Amino acid sequence: MAHAHESNTKRIWYVFGLLSVITIVEVAFGIFKPESLHLTSFLGTSPLNWIFIILTIVKAYYIMWAFMHLEGEKSSFRWSIVGPLVFLILYLCFIVLIEGNYVYEVFNTGHMKWIF
Amino acid sequence: MGATVISHEDALDGGPGPLGATYGKMMMWFFILSDALTFSGFLAAYGFSRFKFIETWPIADEVFNHFPFMHGVDAPMYYVALMTFILIFSSVTMVLAVDAGHHMKKAKVAFYMFLTIIGGFIFLGSQAWEWKNFIKGEYGAVETRGGSILQFVNASGERVALADFAKVLHEERVQHTPDKGVWFMGESALPSYSVAEVVEGFKANPDVLVRTEFIKDKQKVVLTREESLKRLEDVVYVVEGANMYRNEYGSKLFANFFFFITGFHGFHVFSGVLLNVIVFFNVLLGTYEKRKSYEMVEKVGLYWHFVDLVWVFVFTFFYLV
């Protein structure tokens, strides 16, 4: 392997601490649900949900870069994995969630009752 | 082959190729890539259904609010947070095992692998407990002719279990089994109360109200007493807990997605534990010591971290958002 074999234990414990703190913050937000973040809407969903999603992506970044050691791989290798993932997932979510919202509109404004 | 134009023949012998990773590690990564896309397909499907039924979707922290040894206490999210910690921690021990492998420290690798396996088993046990609570249910609900779930609350909005108000009517109704019929027929187990018992009990308890599936200002709408009584005329089923057909939490798809996504993830954890056990014994036998490389620990480690990575997303989209 090209990358150095020095011990990474310090970095590992640092990342563990970071992931724990992020999880605690997420759970605290999830339990207390501050009204200004929970009941308002920003870009289609509440700011609270955006915070959850961003924190999740931060966690995913640290797991993939530090634990799965992508930071030590060649950048061509790293991006041949992360690139398709990011693009395809964003694309899938875009298509599928917009469609879901459209079906909701159809149910909501149509003449047929679907739940009563 | 003879005189071929391949100038980097060493790139094809399993050693580091043009991407700087060995063949095995690279294939593990591309397997993970495809598996990650499978999981994102599932989670996107969950998102689709949720957007489709955005007004009636169950609120997760009302469903998952159990904690071991704290019966009847409303503890939303604590348990899944604990499960997340267990999995993250087992990821840490895994990466420590990989790190020790780089230094060829056999005993340390074995010790950390062992901790990882224990963490995997604890997580699987926790998930089983979570499923048990989900399947058993807590309060019970009724379903109307039109497929809508009605739950019961008291005047201050707290959930009321069917057992708290249903009347016992001494009705003769036994479960129909194949051995009692003239034709081969059967039915699933009967709920603890019949529709009539729930409705009569509701009439006798003036402080119980019906709570619908509909969400307004992030809260489920509670009906008045008159509306509740009118609504109960349509009831056809008593629902306790969850199965693949209906569940007491609300939308039918909610339970289906819960079983499917957490089940598929749990299956991945289970296979991860199996792979870890195999590699653990190989470490003990000295296989990698002879091979002068602990790369197999690294490959299995990649898979194990991936399982953790998926859980991070399941945690967000099932329990938080």
Automatic annotation (TrEMBL), chain A:
Keywords: Cell membrane, Membrane, Transmembrane, Transmembrane helix. Pfam families: COX4_pro. It comes from the Bacteria. The keyword Transmembrane applies. It is found in: Cell membrane. Its main location: membrane. Coiled coil: none annotated. The chain crosses the membrane at residues 12-32, 47-67, 79-98. One of its GO terms (cellular component) is plasma membrane. It is a multi-pass membrane protein. InterPro entries: Cyt_c_oxidase_su4_prok (IPR005171). This is Cytochrome C oxidase subunit IV. It comes from Flavobacterium tibetense. The lineage of its organism: Bacteria, Pseudomonadati, Bacteroidota, Flavobacteriia, Flavobacteriales.
UniProtKB/TrEMBL annotation, chain B:
Coiled coil: none annotated. Keywords: Cell membrane, Membrane, Transmembrane, Transmembrane helix. Signal peptide: none annotated. Residues 1-321 form the Heme-copper oxidase subunit III family profile domain. The keyword Aminoacyl-tRNA synthetase does not apply. GO terms for molecular function: cytochrome-c oxidase activity. GO terms for cellular component: plasma membrane. It is a multi-pass membrane protein. It is found in: Cell membrane. Pfam families: COX3. InterPro entries: Cyt_c/ubiquinol_Oxase_su3 (IPR024791), Cyt_c_oxidase-like_su3 (IPR000298), Cyt_c_oxidase_su3-like_sf (IPR035973), Cyt_c_oxidase_su3_a-hlx (IPR013833). Its main location: membrane. GO terms for biological process: aerobic electron transport chain. The chain crosses the membrane at residues 28-48, 77-97, 109-129, 253-281, 302-320. Belongs to the cytochrome c oxidase subunit 3 family. This is Cytochrome oxidase subunit III.
